[in-house]
Write a structure and sequence with these properties.
alpha/beta, six-stranded antiparallel β-sheet, five-stranded mixed β-sheet
Length: 336
């Protein structure tokens, strides 16, 4: 047995990850947020078929999908039914963008409902083992519950495997909110359709990352991308600026603090900007950004990910551009 966990290198992209114990190679890839192709994850569909270029694998269980003799001779195997015996090099399909993620419709079930604050609830859904949602960190899904539906950012990253997190805010008089906070029950089926959206981490970037989350709405998609970036060790440093009208908008401060305590290269700031951050708010947004980003000279050296409403994102884009940020270094998410 190797002294350390076998490392897998995926070609042609060069991504790497470790396989722990008798973990299926597919599970190990998903655990670190790698968007490797798969379908049933149980050996029936063959979507996770990959070619082993170097190293040794061991089958974990029989599977119904039949590889041809030619495929076997070329080193193909199902990643959901195989584990690594040694360091591996494999040729496998890994999604490089949102266009490569198929549209899916699944039925998940409510696993947990936790209050993150007086007004915000963490809704955790669990998908079937053989029908998980494939998505890229930062994307959204259409969630249907109680006969209603809403387009919600997925607050978890793909490394959470079967667990999908959504952050719901109480809004009196909103039928979906009223049902989620008053009628939804553990174990209840919930339809999930998607994924949608382009707010995803740009692969291969060498610059430090900066995230601006506006209010309560902007944090969920930012959280997903940050967690993916941390799993992928995608940047030498990550800065988060969470800007709210009031302290109550920062409904998950413990998570931000835990990231900062565990990681030397992560920093965050919770900015209370006061009222006037919604609607035609360009002056208020500029003032808040000036408070959060006091050194404009550092702007152009980073890639920015901004999430908020239309006016907040538009004003952020204008402010960052005026500070020297090239347009291609900004990725934006706009609430609907």
């Amino acid at each position: 047995m190797p002294a350390s966990a076998p490392r897998v290198t995926v070609m042609p992209g060069g991504q790497t990850f470790s396989v722990e114990g008798a973990e299926p190679i597919l599970e190990a890839a998903l655990r670190v947020g790698l968007a490797m192709a798969y379908g049933c994850a149980s050996g029936n569909c063959g979507a996770c078929k990959a070619r082993v270029v170097a190293g040794g694998i061991r089958p974990l269980r029989p599977h119904d999908f039949r590889l041809t003799e030619a495929e076997k001779l070329q080193g193909y195997a199902l990643m959901c039914c195989s584990t690594a015996l040694t360091d591996l090099v494999i040729e496998a399909s890994v999604a490089q963008g949102t266009a490569e993620i198929p549209h899916q419709s699944i039925v998940a079930h409510v696993r947990k409902m936790d209050r993150l604050s007086d007004e915000v609830m963490l809704l955790e859904l669990v998908t079937p083992r053989t029908n998980r949602l494939r998505f890229l960190a930062g994307q959204s899904a259409i969630v249907g519950l109680g006969g209603m539906s809403a387009n919600l950012p997925i607050a978890s990253c793909p490394c959470e495997e079967r667990r999908l997190h959504f952050h719901l805010r109480r809004a009196a008089g909103n039928p979906l909110s009223d049902y989620a906070f008053g009628g939804l029950r553990i174990g209840e089926p919930v339809s999930v359709e998607g994924p949608v959206g382009e707010f995803v981490l740009r692969e291969g970037g060498a610059r430090p990352l900066a995230f601006i989350a506006w209010g309560w709405e902007g944090f969920a998609p930012v959280k997903s991308v940050i967690e993916h970036a941390l799993q992928q060790e995608a940047a030498e440093s990550i800065d988060l600026y969470w800007i709210g009208a009031a302290a109550a908008d920062h409904y998950y401060p413990k998570l931000c603090r835990s990231w900062a305590e565990a990681l030397d290269h992560f920093r965050y700031e919770l900015v209370v900007a006061g009222p006037g951050l919604h609607g035609a708010v360009a002056p208020a947004v500029r003032n808040a950004l000036a408070k959060a980003l006091p050194d404009p000279e550092q702007v152009a050296s980073r890639d920015f990910y901004v999430a908020g409403d239309f006016a907040q994102v538009a004003a952020s884009r204008e402010y960052l551009s005026a500070s020297g940020l090239p347009a291609e270094q900004l990725v934006a998410w706009v609430s609907r």
